[in-house]
Write a sequence for this structure.
């Protein structure tokens, strides 16, 4: 059982997603990759599955925006957590 409250976890998830999407939208590939664990995975339908920092860096370098963009993250639902990790799902526009 986690000693963290739901509010603590939900805020941490929100902050992590914000760091990720702002770096993504700004084209800061190294900052995007830094939001993943060393063996982290990104799976985007139609864009493939990429695991590990090297694969993530290669993918996100190809996806770097050519003009300013902003993603909107909505409906984030935290579905489980422990002291070391959390699971959540969001809609991204």
């Amino acid at each position: 059982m986690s000693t963290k409250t739901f509010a603590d976890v939900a805020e941490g998830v929100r902050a992590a997603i914000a760091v990720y999407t702002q770096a993504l939208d700004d084209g800061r590939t190294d900052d995007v990759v830094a939001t993943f664990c060393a063996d982290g995975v990104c799976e985007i339908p139609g864009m493939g599955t990429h695991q590990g920092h090297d694969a993530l860096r290669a993918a996100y370098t190809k996806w770097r925006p050519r003009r300013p963009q902003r993603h909107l993250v909505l409906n984030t639902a935290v579905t489980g957590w422990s002291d070391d990790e959390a699971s959540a799902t969001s809609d991204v526009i």
Q: What stands out?
A: The beta strands are 41-44, 48-51, 73-81, 86-92. The CA atoms of residues 76 and 90 lie 4 Å apart. The longest helix spans residues 6-26. The chain has a mean pLDDT of 93.
